[in-house]
Amino acid sequence: MRFSKAVATTEYPDRLLSVLDAVEYRRIESREDFEDIARLRYKSYRERGVLPLSASSMLDELDFDDHAYVFGVYLHEELVSTIRVHYVTPTHRVSQSSGVFPDAVNAFLDAGMTLIDPARLAIDPELDVERSALPFLTVRPTIMAAIYFNADRMLQHIRPAHAAFYRRYFYADTVVPPTFTDMYGFDLTLLASRTREIGAKLLRRFPIYESQPYERRLMFDRSPLRGMPPLTIIPTARIAHMNGTVLTN
Predict the structure, then answer these.
(1) By its UniProt entry, which Pfam families does this protein fall under (predicted)?
(2) DSSP 225
């Protein structure tokens, strides 16, 4: 995924907030919505030449794991991007990164840590975006999940060319250097952000990642009392920025 150099300007965080005002998130649960996600993934991955060699479908069993949360991002009511967020614990070790870099992920889990592992990020390649903003808006549920679940690390299994971005803007450390992966047929590297250490600093730098507790509950609460997830979730970043984000569930 390419990220715009515009992020270096001081005006960029404000522009991200402006774009976020036109965004809604949806937690994907229905068959119809999953089919839309599969089509978007295929379109995005084919355009960028990153279709997994072993993939027979753009949906897999990890999409339906009970610690996985698949989100669609809607700009002006159009599906424009998607991401899957996994909550990984010592007793539930299923995630995309654990399949690619099992030794590194298990080392975190054996130390008693909990992890947020985003995967399957896909953006409609036909968009010109406001569009440099979309990668930042798409990964927003990852930061929200780290707060909601009080996780120790956010993982990033990415192509080496993108590592500098995550080190600079998400304060990520390299865990596994660039390594050829049979699953994809190209090199990947594994990075990790220390969520409790960088959380407040990241939110100050990028107000779009702020959120109110009730938005995080709408995103991630699966308790029986909650019932069906809402059709859409309106971002609360601007409200949280005005009031001051509380970094707890």
Answers:
(1) FeeM (PF21926)
(2) G
Q: In the prediction, which pLDDT does 2 show?
A: 38
Sign of CA dihedral 86, 212, 19, 234: positive
3-state secondary structure of 114: coil
| Beta-carbon contacts of residue 184 (< 8 Å; ≥ 6 apart) | 50, 52, 53
Which backbone phi and psi does 74 adopt, to 5 degrees?
-115, 120
Quick check: 45 and 1 in contact, CB under 8 A? no
Note the Cα 96 to chain centre separation in Å. Answer: 12
Spatial separation of the C-alpha atoms in residues 192 and 107, rounded to whole Å: 13
Backbone angles phi, psi at 114, to 5 degrees: -115, 150
Pairing of strands 153-158, 115-123: parallel
**pLDDT of 157-216, one tens digit each?**
999 998 998 999 899 999 999 999 887 788 999 999 999 999 999 999 999 999 999 999
Q: Is the dihedral of CA 25, 29, 35, 39 positive or negative?
A: positive
In sequence order, which ranges of the chain are alpha helices (DSSP H)?
12-20, 31-48, 96-100, 102-110, 134-138, 140-148, 163-169, 195-205, 213-220, 237-243
HSE-CB at 162 with a 13 A cutoff on CA atoms is: 15
Kindly tell me the sign of the dihedral angle through the C-alpha atoms of 9, 240, 237, 157: positive
Give the model's pLDDT for residue 113.
Answer: 98
Report which DSSP code applies to 233: B
Domain residue spans in the chain?
A: 5-242
First to last CA, the chain: 30
Q: How confident is the model at residue 55 (pLDDT cuts 50, 70, 90)?
A: low
